[in-house]
Amino acid sequence: MPDETSAETTADLPEEIRAALMRALREVFGYDSLRPGQEAALARVMRDQNLLAVMPTGAGKSICYQLPAVVRGGLTVVVSPLIALMRDQVAALRAAGVEAGSLNSASDPAERERVLAALAEGRLRLLYLSPERLGGAETMRLLERSDVRLLAIDEAHCVSQWGHDFRPEYTRLGAVRARLGGPPTIALTATADRATREDIAAQLFESPPDILVMGFDRPNLRLAMRPKANPRRQIEQFLALHRGASGIVYCNSRRQTEELSVDLAGRGVDAHAYHAGMEKEAREAVQDRFLASDGVVIFATVAFGMGIDKPDVRFVAHAGLPKSVEAYYQEIGRAGRDGLPADTLTLYGIDDIRLRRRQIDESEAPEERKRVDRQRLNALVALCEAPRCRRQTLLAYFGETDAAPCGNCDLCLDGVETMDGTIEAQKALSAILRTGERFGMEHLIDLLRGEATEKIERFGHDKLPTFGVGADRTKVQWRGIFRQLYALGIAGFEPADHGAWRVGPNGRAVLKDGEAVRLRLEPTRRSERARGGTRDLPEGVDTDLLARLKEKRLAIARHEGVPAYVVFPDRTLIEIAADRPADRAALARVHGVGSRKLERYGDAFLGVLREGTG
């Protein structure tokens, strides 16, 4: 089952179909053109071909099923994992004049009646359902009487046992699809390696579908990773570069979400905690505030984020190591979905690595799953300690090995030096062996630096030949060396034995045979403060006018009870502030302004422009 990155586009469709697609794209969604991934996916969907599409977050996956639903009529059933995502997509579609609805546990009686009536009368174009509700007997009876033209499965990596967010209820979708008569199906995800793609295809389809892999690069995201020094202070400094912007800070514990949010709220940040231990109503209130307002920062566990469709998230930070490269990619992908510049920062330390390894070892997963999870953790550690462009390393993990240096990660921007670290590795390994492989990293660093601590003297380690041989390097530098030795398999530590370090499987060749080791020196970070946060707005944008446009958007959104971006995304407001359209005709040419939104909101925003020139 080969992966496909075919250049096939909607130009290969009959002219009348392509014309209808482009007309709806402009009039309903306000877009002038399709992106390459959308072109390739739509060419297949409009031919009723089954498709598994792997497209980067922000690539516009939803257009691949929403546009056919508008053009072809009939019913498109969308399987989505979160009520909040269903609600927001339905609100955006209805604002654009498309008959859409969802049936879920949060639907009030009036909404349920509206959706059922539209479904019975054949007016409903898109119906959003959770995988659990889709498989229910009542729902199946409704759908069997409806004209289901397309089944769209969002977050399709949840189908696979190899996916980073496997959900058992997704595994029943193949059987549900068969009960519906096998309608044409598009499964979409931003995160799926080859093993995951093959598993998704086997779970959902009776025969191999087309597979479209459009790449994993998100060039608008600035990537950065830093060793932990003072995590709270590091997060505070990062947020200071993004005042007034919306963002997410992922934490590794519920307690950390609460402590950091309280601390930052005390410093004037609109900060809120979010984790699974909160009451449902409290979680929903936090999520609603984040979606509806600008400048909200969420400190969250991984319970927050899947299905969050807020396009103007300007940064994502990790206060600790993510679970895997896939999880990291998925989580940073929640920033910059509008295509505008966004920032990321990930902090990591030895304790994070040790925790993740223990979680894998102590899990009840089969040994094969543990083996794969250990490999994925090793890949993540290698990404953290990468000696070259971080984007190259990340894309290589997903099989894209021909990427050039990106110029938009910490290692490209700040520079990175590598050195022949063979002697340093040998010094560290000698310290580990001469102390009987019984001591933790900090004690070994004290030994190497020649610091006569009480513990060093008690064990007589100040008499060892290794005492002081690494005095030319700081503690911070030695910690970085130890992390890299761990990432390279040269040395490791035993969590069950107080973190005692041992010589790793690759260590003997370094110590005995002098096998060369290249190590990375920490980036200089000279340019970090000069760069500030995310890149400046495009030339010609009046920031005061943009602020007034955002105020108007927020007022409309609150009145209508929808997230602010449902009215217009940031990209649209930025173009309005730059181009200053003088009338409806000019406003209609702005990205994201379809005919329905022009009719609904045009005068309000033109009024803001006139106020600024009056």
UniProtKB/TrEMBL annotation:
What GO cellular component is one of the record's annotations? Answer: bacterial nucleoid
Query: What catalytic activity does the UniProt entry give for this protein?
Result: Couples ATP hydrolysis with the unwinding of duplex DNA by translocating in the 3'-5' direction
Which top-level group of life is the source organism from? Bacteria
Molecular function terms from GO: 3'-5' DNA helicase activity; ATP binding; DNA binding; four-way junction helicase activity; hydrolase activity; metal ion binding
Keyword check for DNA repair, yes or no.
Answer: yes
The chain positions of domain Helicase C-terminal read 234-381
Which InterPro entries did the record assign? DEAD/DEAH_box_helicase_dom, DNA_helicase_ATP-dep_RecQ, DNA_helicase_ATP-dep_RecQ_bac, Helicase_ATP-bd, Helicase_C-like, HRDC-like_sf, HRDC_dom, HRDC_dom_sf
| Keyword Cell inner membrane appears in the UniProt entry | no
Q: Which cofactor does it need?
A: Zn(2+); Mg(2+)
Q: Its Gene Ontology biological processes?
A: DNA recombination; DNA repair; DNA replication; SOS response
Q: What is its EC number?
A: 5.6.2.4
Keywords, A to Z?
A: ATP-binding, DNA damage, DNA recombination, DNA repair, DNA-binding, Helicase, Hydrolase, Isomerase, Metal-binding, Nucleotide-binding, Zinc
One Pfam family named in its UniProt record: RQC
What name goes with this protein?
DNA helicase RecQ
What species is this protein from? Marivibrio halodurans
Which gene name does the record give?
A: recQ
